[in-house]
Amino acid sequence: xxxxxxxxxxxxxxxxxxxxxxxxxxxxxxxxxxxxxxxxxxxxxxxxxxxxxxxxxxxxxxxxxxxxxxxxxxxxxxxxxxxxxxxxxxxxxxxxxxxxxxxxxxxxxxxxxxxxxxxxxxxxxxxxxxxxxxxxxxxxxxxxxxxxxxxxxxxxxxxxxxxxxxxxxxxxxxxxxxxxxxxxxxxxxxxxxxxxxxxxxxxxxxxxxxxxxxxxxxxxxxxxxxxxxxxxxxxxxxxxxxxxxxxxxxxxxxxxxxxxxxxxxxxxxxxxxxxxxxxxxxxxxxxxxxxxxxxxxxxxxxxxxxxxxxxxxxxxxxxxxxxxxxxxxxxxxxxxxxxxxxxxxxxxxxxxxxxxxxxxxxxxxxxxxxxxxxxxxxxxxxxxxxxxxxxxxxxxxxxxxxxxxxxxxxxxxxxxxxxxxxxxxxxxxxxxxxxxxxxxxxxxxxxxxxxxxxxxxxxxxxxxxxxxxxxx
Length: 472
Fold this sequence. Notes:
single chain, mainly alpha, 2 domains, 5-stranded mixed sheet, 5% strand
C-alpha cells in the first residue's frame, strides 16, 4: 500500500488540478459565467497598464461620459496584473494565472488548518471537496473572491500556529498573519467574516491571556486598513467621481429581499456551493453527525461563522441570490463538514466514502467544465477593436448593446456606455448620447438585437456588427 501513499498527498492533487485548470488559461473573458465581472476588473488593469490613472484611483471604461474612476475593492490584484502586462505583454492569461496560483496556495493552507485539529484523512477529503466546489472554476477567473478568501485562510493558518503550534507565542508568526489578513480583507471585504473563527481560541483557557490580547490587537490592526479603504477613501471617490460597484442594502431591505427570494437564496447552498447536490447532502449529514457525537467545538465554530456570514448575506440582498459567487466565502466552512462526514464513513464503510468523494468530484467538474471553453458565437466580439480602428479614435466615446455587460467596450478598447438594445433604439436616448459626446453606436447582432432598428447613418456593417454614426 505504501506505493499508493503518494495518491493521498494533497500536494499531488493540488498540482494536478492546477495543471488541469491551465486549459484555456489564455481565453478572453467570454465564458458564460460572470465574464462581465472579469471584464470590469480587467478594465482596471488595462487603465493601469496604459497609464490612464494611478493606483489609488482605479478606473473602468463603462461609466458613460464620466471619467471612470470608481469606488471598488482594493485593486492590488489588477495592479499586479498590469505589471505582468509590462513584463509579458498585454494578454488574457496573466490575471487568470495570478488567481490560479493564489487559489492553489489557499487550498494548501486550508489543508494544513484542518489537519492541525483533526486528521490527514479529514483534511484530504475537506480540501478535495473545496477544490472541486465552485472553487474549481472561479479560481481561474480574474475576480477577487478566491484571492481574498485564500489570503485570509493563509492568515488564519498563521494565527492558529501562533496559538497552538510548537512555535506558539512567537510574534514572528503574526507578521504573515497581519500582512496576508490585511491584503485578503482589503481585496474583498466579505472574506473578513472568516476571521470571526478566531473568537473561539480567545476563550480557550489553555492559551495565555497575553497571547489572546496580542492576537486580538493584531486582528483589529488587520481589519483597520479595510475600514479606511471602503468607508473613507471609497466614499471620497464616490463623492468626487460618482461611481460605485455595489453599495449593498440596509439590513431591513436586504432581509426582506432574502425572505422574498428564499428559493434562489437556498439554492446557493444546496447547488452553487459544490456545483452539485451530493456535496450539500454530505454537509447536511455532517451537521447531524456532529450533533450526535457532541462535537460542540466544531459546531460552535460553524455556528459563529454562519451567523456572521448571514449578516453579509442580508447586507448583500439581491446580489447574494442573483450571483452564485457570493457563496464562495462560506464554501470552505461547508467543505470542512463534508470532510468530517467522509472521514467518519471511512472508518466504517471505506469504499462508500471514496465513492461519494468521487461523485462530488465528478459532479463538480461536470457542472463547470463548460467554463474552460468559449462558445463559437462569442468569438466575433474579439474583432470589434479592429472594426473600430478605421471608424473612431480611441479617445472617442461609444455605446454598445451590452445591457450592462461591458464586454464589447473592453474588446473595442473604448470608453462609453453598455446599454440594452431596446434602450439604444429609442430616439430620445440617442439624443442623450449625442449631448454627452458619444460618437458611435456599435451593435453586436447576436446580442439580443433582432427586431430593433436605429434610424441613424450606417458607417459599417458585416455579419456580426453594425455601426451607426451619431451626428449633431
